[in-house]
Specification:
By secondary structure, this protein is an all-alpha fold. The chain contains twelve helices and two strands. The protein has a single domain, classed as ABC transporter transmembrane region fold. α7 packs antiparallel against α8 and α10 packs antiparallel against α11. The termini are far apart. This is ABC transmembrane type-1 domain-containing protein. One of its GO terms (molecular function) is ABC-type transporter activity. It is a multi-pass membrane protein. It is found in: Endomembrane system.
């Protein structure tokens, strides 16, 4: 019986071949491409490219058209406006109701207040249902449109494309990227619209309630925007690096599963080498994931600190204006102040997350624009009306040498 031998696989650093590709920098890379033509002439597999900088407007416009265009956005805007109108109306009516003195109304008036409040709440609930259903339907429509274009482009792609791009890159787009477009992106998009309307309406109501004191919130909102822009720059590129570094892992796993019999046939040395390669590629992917987690934590800490500043300004204003506001309005403004704090933080987080997730449609559109091989229309030859009259096969002008 052979003795058992422990396998120790050393780890070492690995540099994943990834080159940035941006429309702004195409002209600057022309000279480098001409210089490296001879060096890359014998290469079969191309390096996987990635965009850099902000997600282009063309990607947003393409996804916007896939959702349904202007009609869908106008419909969503109307639904969200009605939703916030019913929501704020119910809160203002409740503030008016609780501000009434105990002896100033009878039982009929209380029933009337309850009826109005219930109708406003029911209207808000109906708008929430319509909004959620619309987001799901248009999100699935956009996903189906992008999926169909990707599949059609790959079916028409030349064979050279499949030789130069490993199967893991295609699987990554059909797996992770399509999953993001199917599930994550529609709900993030809908959540961003909801949070935007919610925060703007609540903030406007709180500022209107506190008069001139509410102006102090504007500098804090400006700081929110600045921090968000500073956070988005690295988070976009880290997300791209994480997605690009996932393709080599999937390619290696796929190749190992397909050739497991051959790998085992060559013995322990080949098994150790395959394990070592797998560790290297997973380490590279984990580095990108760790960098993404660190940047998110950095962003959340600063959002919480500024949110505390917003609450402090609002509460200080309410204390200063306590003699000029009714108890109902004070409670309403204080409640809105707490929701504005979380709403602004969620708004910035959702916008940054949406722009990060837009990398997936960007990668899908990259493979949806592959130059087709041959004509996109099938060649149709109309036969003669009397064809076939006889079952003969003729070779004309054929030369064998």
């Amino acid at each position: 019986m052979a003795a058992r031998r422990d396998v120790t696989v050393p780890r070492r650093s690995y540099t994943l071949p990834m080159y940035p590709r941006s429309a702004k920098d195409d002209s600057s890379h022309d000279g480098e491409e001409n210089t490296n033509t001879n060096r890359d002439a014998g290469r079969l597999i191309d390096d996987e490219g990635r965009e850099e900088g902000r997600v282009s407007k063309e990607v947003f416009l393409n996804y916007f058209n896939s959702l349904g265009g202007v009609k869908v956005c106008v419909f969503l805007f109307a639904v969200l406006t009605l939703w916030q109108g019913f929501q704020i109306g119910s809160d203002l009516w409740l503030s008016h109701w609780t501000g009434q003195k105990n002896g100033s109304y009878n039982q009929d008036e209380a029933a009337y207040n309850m009826k109005v409040y219930s109708l406003l709440g029911a209207g808000a609930a109906i708008m929430v249902f319509v909004r959620s259903a619309t987001v799901v339907v248009v999100g699935l429509r956009a996903s189906r449109h992008l999926f169909d274009n990707l599949t059609l482009s790959l079916l028409r792609a030349p064979l050279r494309f499949f030789d130069a791009n490993p199967i893991g890159r295609i699987v990554n787009r059909y797996g992770d990227d399509i999953s993001v477009v199917d599930f994550s992106l529609p709900f993030i998009f809908g959540g961003f619209l909801v949070t935007f309307f919610f925060t703007v309406c609540k903030l406007a109501t709180a500022v209107y309630t506190m008069n001139f004191v509410g102006v102090l919130i504007i500098p804090l909102v400006w700081i929110y925007v600045k921090i968000a822009n500073f956070y988005l720059a690295p988070s976009r590129d880290i997300s791209r690096l994480w997605k690009v570094s996932s393709s080599p892992v999937l390619s290696h796993v796929t190749q190992s599963e397909e050739g497991v019999v051959v790998i085992r046939a060559f013995g322990q040395d080949i098994i150790e080498r395959m394990l070592h390669e797998n560790f290297i590629r997973n380490d590279m992917n984990s580095r990108c994931w760790f960098a993404s987690t660190v940047t998110q934590q950095w962003f959340q800490v600063r959002m919480q600190l500024i949110g505390c500043g917003v609450v402090f300004v609002v509460v200080s204003g309410l204390v200063y204006l306590r003699d000029y506001l009714s108890p109902g309005l004070v409670g309403l403004a204080f409640t809105y102040a707490l929701s504005v704090d979380s709403g602004l933080a969620s708004l910035v987080q959702l916008w940054s997350l949406m722009e990060i997730q837009m990398v997936s449609p960007e990668r899908i559109l990259e493979y949806s624009s592959i130059p087709a091989e041959g004509s996109s229309r099938p060649l149709v030859i109309e036969p003669d009306a009397l064809w076939p009259r006889s079952s003969t096969v003729q070779f004309q002008d054929v030369v064998f040498s």
